[in-house]
Structure to design on (176 residues):
């Protein structure tokens, strides 16, 4: 199995304050979770997708880098798994003093709570790719913190948290 044991990985947990019209973690108070090295560095996108399907919490829906425009989802949480390369990402909004700008690499994974603004800042190797997955039965929308999106941000409070950890099932940081 390509998944590393939970005791062998580091998980970063960050609460990100609301900034302008980007709610971030202010609505549900669920942290952004970054699983460092959860998958072996040799793990392929296909293997990641198979693992996500096996755990059965989030269904893989795309392979891509990440949009370079800050956006958030009001209808679902998002699971991102780095399948290739390295990149510097921004969570929380570019001008937010409480933003998080991690460098992620192949084997890392991220649970992005509904409402958290995110974007690609820099593809460090020129081949960055992630597997994007969403809780079963959920569809994602695109919000940009623009005029007229206030009602979408209100919907975040009604998004149910993940029922199990998308990587470790009944254990794992999502369950804390």
């Amino acid at each position: 199995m390509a998944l590393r044991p939970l005791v062998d990985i580091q998980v970063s947990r960050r609460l990100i304050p609301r900034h302008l019209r980007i709610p971030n973690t202010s609505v549900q108070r669920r942290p952004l979770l970054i699983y460092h090295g959860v998958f072996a560095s040799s793990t392929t996108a296909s293997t990641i997708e198979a693992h996500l399907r096996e755990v059965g919490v989030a269904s893989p829906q795309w392979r891509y880098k990440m949009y370079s425009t800050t956006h958030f989802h009001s209808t679902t949480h998002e699971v991102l798994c780095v399948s290739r390369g390295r990149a510097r990402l921004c969570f929380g909004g570019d001008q937010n003093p409480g933003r998080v700008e991690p460098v992620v690499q192949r084997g890392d994974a991220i649970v992005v709570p509904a409402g958290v603004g995110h974007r690609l800042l820099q593809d460090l190797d020129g081949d960055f790719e992630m597997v994007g997955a969403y809780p079963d039965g959920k569809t994602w929308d695109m919000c940009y913190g623009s005029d007229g999106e206030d009602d979408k941000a209100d919907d975040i409070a009604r998004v149910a948290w993940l029922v199990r950890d998308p990587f470790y099932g009944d254990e794992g940081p999502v369950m804390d």
